[in-house]
Specification:
Layout (H helix, E strand, L loop, with lengths): L1 E5 L3 H14 L4 E5 L2 H9 L6 E5 L1 E2 L2 E2 H11 L4 E6 L4 H9 L4 E4 L4 H12 L24 H11 L4 H8 L3 H15 L4 H10 L4
Parallel strand pairs: 1-2, 1-3, 3-6, 6-7
Antiparallel strand pairs: 4-5
Helix pairs in contact: 1-6, 6-8, 7-8, 8-9
């Protein structure tokens, strides 16, 4: 699978790509910060299979990005990824030419399962809260949103700073941190980072 992520949070892009390639071999993935960079890269990457475009891009609209990418690279499957997960946005993504919609609350393993389906010619528009990887035997993996939190923890940010950075409530950050501790079996934030580095997540 040859994959491109367009997301304007550089730490998330690096971490997301690393997590996917760590989860399964045979994935060639790159991340860029802006739509124009993605369009340019796709021109020199004829084997590109799928592009993930973040809904909230600085200076760009993810839905418009789907349309532009489709116009210039019609053979590349397009997927919208977003922290805003609702049926209306999912429908808008489909109308803009996306082959799939991925919420950032999905575990990385579920995201991989959905991408495999899209690359094989299918679609992924499952309602929030359902899992495309049900029945998989892989262990727990962080969600895309939790990965964002983890990468900000690795930068030394506290919960209040993370909440401001991601535009979410501080209590939501605490829930993500707790989930990360449980998923990796960590005792505290320091231990969490040690385990995350050993797992190749940061």
């Amino acid at each position: 699978m040859n994959l491109l992520l367009i997301d304007d949070h550089p730490m998330f892009g690096v971490g997301f790509v690393h997590a996917l390639t760590h989860l399964q071999t045979g994935i060639a993935a790159r991340s860029v910060l802006h739509l124009e960079q993605g369009l340019d890269l796709a021109r020199s990457w004829p084997a590109l299979d799928v592009v993930l475009i973040d809904y909230r891009l600085a200076g760009d609209d993810g839905l418009a990005g789907l349309r532009r990418f489709g116009a210039q690279h019609p053979l590349v499957a397009r997927v919208l990824i977003s922290g805003q997960e609702d049926l209306a946005l999912m429908a808008q993504a489909r109308a803009a030419g996306a082959a799939g919609f991925l919420g950032k609350s999905l575990p990385i393993a579920d995201i991989l399962a959905a991408l495999e389906k899209v690359v094989a010619g299918g679609e992924h528009f499952q309602p929030p809260g359902t899992s495309p990887a049900a029945g998989r035997t892989a262990g727990q993996s962080p969600t895309a949103r939790q990965l964002e939190v983890l990468l900000l923890i690795a930068r030394g940010q506290q919960n209040k700073q993370i909440a401001h950075e991601l535009g979410i409530a501080e209590r939501t950050v605490k829930l993500h941190v707790t989930a990360l501790l449980d998923a990796l079996g960590a005792r505290n934030r320091t231990h969490l980072l040690v385990l995350a580095r050993e797992s190749g997540l940061v």
